[in-house]
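Ticket reopened. Same input as before:
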Amino acid sequence: MTVWILIAVIVLFILWMIFIYNRLVTLRNEVKNAWYQIDVQLKRRHDLIPNLVSVVKGYMEFERDTLERVISARTKALSAVSLREKAVAENMLTQALGRLFVVIENYPSLKSNENVMQLQEELTSTENRIAFARQLYNDLVANYMIKREVFPDNIIASLFAFRGAEYFSTEKADRILPVADISIGTK
Amino acid sequence: MPLTFIDIEKQKSWRIGILFIFLLFMYFCVSAALFQGFLLIFPVFFLKSGFILSESNLPYLLILIAFSLIVAIIHFCFSAFGAVRSVMDNLGASPPDPEDGIHIRLMNIMDEIHIVTGNKRKITCMVIPSLSMNALAVADLKDDAVIAITEGLLSRLTRPQLEAVVAHEAYHILSGDCLETTIAASLFGMYASTLEKMMDPGEEGYRGFHPAFLLFWLLIKLSNLLSMFISREREYRADAASLRMTRNPLAMAEALQLLSKNWAGVGLISTGIEMLCIVNPQASELDESEGWWADLMSTHPPIRKRMEILLKMARVSISEFGAKASSKTKAFDISDTPEALYYALDSKQQWQGPYSYADLASLSWISPLTWVSAGPTQTVERASENTLINKIFTDRLSQTEKEISAFTCPFCKHPLFTVSYENTKVYQCNFCGGILVENNKIPRIIARREKKCTDRVKSLAKAVLIDNQRKLTIKKLRSVEIKTKSGITCSKCKHPMFRTFYSLAYLIEIDRCNICGVTWFDMDELEMLQCIIENKITPIVGLQQIPL
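Engineering reply: fixed in the latest deploy. New output:
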């Protein structure tokens, strides 16, 4: 009699292990997928920027400084390798673009130009997509870490060497809100 | 609440089961009552007892149950599987136009929502061509899910506000609320609307009443109760979910305030599907009250309470918010910030003006050599020397790169240029300034207010309205047809066009082709129409001398 109970317990235990292991594997892959989704949106932004700069360049001779800042931030973002470098470069690019849009507000004929409006909409959408992709990534990482560290499951996790994932965080310096810089002219 | 939006709550499916049982019960009752009635009239002698529900008639009872089961299943399948399609057709919704700037914005926002929810469910978006402001979400058993937004709402919300509204609706779909509500609405909707017609006193004042309808009425009310049971709580949760996605409580609060102040679509959205909307189209006092009875019977929570919760999160007090909101609505005021005005010297050496920048651009005789001045005491300079005015000419040069469309102007026979007017594509003749618009784009153009109504257009509109009012009266007195052939042919299909007024409420003369659905507006007519509708200009009604 007790032999049957023991066998039943062992079988249940193995089933539970399999269930937990599969869940951890699924979550780990979802995290990896979400990470690459962010890259997709970042690439979209990199591709849109040269278009915007070429359209705007003709109208804004006095703003060469702002434009150059955008171009250099983009090149730096393209060449970044590690996660830390990428995060920093992308944040700087966001700030440079923000400043450019504020400057565009001062040129009414540019603001009503259809191409510029379309590009502005596309870039706003891309910024949102990047933000949402990061949000999703962070949510998934949190979910994965919780399932990895909760008491009975963390035994399985350490047994099968499930590594932790890193959150996509902003640098402390970037937490300072960028001030809208609306002065025209050379800086 | 789950940590991510990936965990779709499947608990709602048991309620759908209850709805089906309800339907079955209803059909069983009806068929039993009918059969009982039949028995009373024609006593059938192979039945052991005259009363159908007694145990001795068990085999007949079973037949009755089987029959009502079949009917219930057919009804359920028809309504639950095709609900999305029927609701959309009812509202006249269509997919967004990929060439329209604001529809593109909506499509981008849908993509963003898909990203933030991890692409777990494909949601399509549709646009309802109505000036009311509402949004609804529908889902059916075929796994279709649609968010439909009215043109009025699309044109009046800023991007962050639109994101908040779409996120709210998306949560309803993803959490399964929508499926349940759609099925409830479509199952009993048919009977609910016939019941409404029955209960309406009608022209003769006779109210038809039949005992069977009492049963119907009871069952419908019970099913409504079932759906409304946690309806209020659902709206709060959807608001919170939208916040978690967009992280912008102020935008959601602003959107709710705009929704509460405007026409929410009563008359357009039929009773039954009102539960699917973000704001109740038939906003009633019951909705705005609190307490357990209101919680049970109304479909939407009071908007003020929703806003309070959101504003508490944003740490903004309601009075502060109200002040900010009233300063923002000034953007729709015609009397805006004073623009810089200029005077220009015409060929007869007369100073004309004052003109704003937009008026100057529309003057036909202005050139880079024209003398302009900001006022009697200001400096006089050539138009090309003033950097702002010079932009008029550089813009004109850059505008010649506009696309030539395949259509020609019905009057001048010149090719029409594709122009973007109020963010949507229309065709304009450079020569006479007339515009060709497809009929399905007109509600959009009327709903959007980016083009400011200048004083010139306003005064022109008033004069034209008075003139047209006289013309209309003359035509009516002489019993002449209001719609006449205008002698020009349609640019698209080459059939003759008809000259008529846009509508009897808005007396602007236009040429319309009913075969291919386009309208031709002469120069300024489209702007005048927009101006009249936005500012509610009406002609002066009164006794006037009408020449005979």
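The first helix of chain A runs from residue 2 to 57. Chain A has a mean pLDDT of 81. Please confirm and we'll close it.
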